């Protein structure tokens, strides 16, 4: 679990770094200009790290399923080599998804005024600027981003339904412990996937609410992930208490 949490934290950091610095700079400088090359780079990086996050969240659901439903085989099934393979496959899948996403938009003809109704470069706002019929491209975007998000979300839901089905016969204390272990992951999945599905599962249309929903999966969800996993995990809370107690004791000794 902690191996995947490390990778999730890294992908969160990289993911928000593709959007937040540019957004803050534009707000402070009161400038909202971005070059075409930078726009395409932001589009690729955002979908690449976002894809990694989606696949790692799916891997974490599988990890919880094995830990709860097959505890005696957990160390054999989720060995270190398999964990590395899952993360490598996640990066590869995210790269292919992002490459295909950029391929759909990079050859589109754009004509002025090139003003994106968004705070970062994304596919649908760019399609709105194209000087050509983008219906087929929009369908491909739904097939690429929308279906990827939908399929992984269905897999996540099925994994937790299997967990609930398995623990129904467990004692009450064991059920509570299992649900407590999964609750943080379910919270993160809902915060991330619901806005993503709202944006990408529909045809090529944009709404004013899109920017609000995009805030959830680009900034808010990655920002709250460490807090959610920290405060919902007993071991993490215990470790934090020890660290803070050691620091307070050290400061107390220095004052004395």
Radius of gyration: 21 Å
Taken together, the total number of domains comes to 1
State the end-to-end distance.
Answer: 41 Å
Mean pLDDT: 83
What is the CATH homologous superfamily assignment?
A: Rhodopsin 7-helix transmembrane proteins
CATH topology: Rhopdopsin 7-helix transmembrane proteins
Largest sheet: none
What fraction of the residues are assigned to beta strands by DSSP? under 5%
- The number of helical runs is 10
Secondary structural class: mainly alpha
Tertiary shape: globular
**Uncertain spans:** none
Helix residue percentage: over 70%
| CATH class membership | Mainly Alpha
Topology, number of strands: 0
The CATH level-2 architecture is identified as Up-down Bundle
Order of helices and strands: HHHHHHHHHH
Concise overview:
Belongs to the G-protein coupled receptor 1 family. By secondary structure, the chain is an all-alpha fold.
What does this 3D model show about the protein?
There is one protein chain. With 256 residues, this protein is mostly helical. The chain has one domain (1-254): Rhopdopsin 7-helix transmembrane proteins (Up-down Bundle), CATH 1.20.1070. Helix content is 80%, strand content 0%. The protein contains ten helices and no strands. It has helices at residues 2-17, 20-29, 36-69, 74-77, 80-106, 123-129, 135-167, 172-200, 210-231, 234-255. Helix 1 (2-17) packs antiparallel against helix 9 (210-231), helix 3 (36-69) runs antiparallel to helix 8 (172-200) and helix 5 (80-106) packs antiparallel against helix 7 (135-167). The relative contact order is 0.11. The model has no long low-confidence stretch (mean pLDDT 83). Keywords: Cell membrane, G-protein coupled receptor, Membrane, Olfaction, Receptor, Sensory transduction, Transducer, Transmembrane, Transmembrane helix. It is found in: Cell membrane. Putative odorant or sperm cell receptor.
